[in-house]
Amino acid sequence: RGYAPLTLCRTCGHRFECPRCSAWLIDHRRSGRLHCHHCGYFTPMPTACPSCDEKESLAACGPGVERIKEEVEGLFPGAKIAVLSSDTADTHEKLKDILHDIRYSGVDIIIGTQIIAKGHHFPKLTCVGVIDADLGLSGGDLRATERTYQLLHQVAGRAGRESAKGYVYLQTFNPESRVMQALSSGDRDEFLAIEREEREEAFMPPFSRLAGIIVSGRDERLVQNVSVILAQNAPRSTDMGQGMDTLGPAEAPMYRLRGNYRRRLLVRADKSIDIQKALKHWIGSVKIPSAVRVQIDIDPQSFF
């Protein structure tokens, strides 16, 4: 979404970050603002760097749909372009109007975020290109490769759904990765076999169960102390394949969110264990200050 995911000063290197979250502010040219997509904070785009006061030194880094639209307009000046994202289709009616234009109003090029992959049928669409197809593989998400494969396979399926042949282009910095190789070869079963083998070796789902524990609060030191105490009182097992195993605490990938500091523990348990009962007994044995919140996520789908 937006124009670029990062704005920095070419003179001093200052990067614009959300004051409440561990996230860069997103450049939105349509609104003339820098936005945080996590907490909703925004500020007008400055004319000079707030760190060194240098003018005309701010550079937009990376692609957003607004920037790609700008480049596409330069490359294909006569094309009719539609942009599909949660910013342009923030209501059901707007989404219906954009989809109607794509189907019946001679749209030549569609630019969109990943919502464009979600089951839409465009009869005349014959070419799909994915910018930064590797993006979903970064971070600490256990299911990153699985989700990236699903998303790219899904968006690739938008091309050539009728009689005309479809073409798909993926921009990648690592064409040798098994996700890209599986997509280019169409060998889904091989990808699933490798994923299964790696998860079994690491004792990860579906061969175990996971529980995420997020300790959060506005006092950074207090959050750190509580997470350490929880880890010290965690159930132990001598064999990773038997009982429970606790990883962490560590800073959550999104360390600060809406002004709260966040530390994370990950519990890995044998499938024979009643993980809810074990966690209730464990967390209940530790006195949690009122200024700290402890959230438990059984079989977590998100690891941020």
What does this structure look like?
The chain is of the alpha+beta class. The chain is built from seven helices and 13 strands. Strands 11-12-10-13 form a four-stranded antiparallel sheet. Strands 2-3-4 form a three-stranded antiparallel sheet, with no helix packed on it. Strands 1-5 form a two-stranded antiparallel sheet. Helix 3 packs parallel to helix 4. It is globular, with a radius of gyration of 23 Å. It starts with 5 loop residues before the first strand and ends in a 6-residue tail after the last strand. Helix 2 links the parallel strand 6 and strand 7.
Instruction: Encode the helix/strand succession as letters.
Output: EEEEEHEHEEHEHHEHEEHE
- What's the number of extended β-strand segments? 13
**What number is the mean pLDDT?**
88
End-to-end distance: 19 Å
Low-confidence stretches: none
Structural class label: alpha+beta
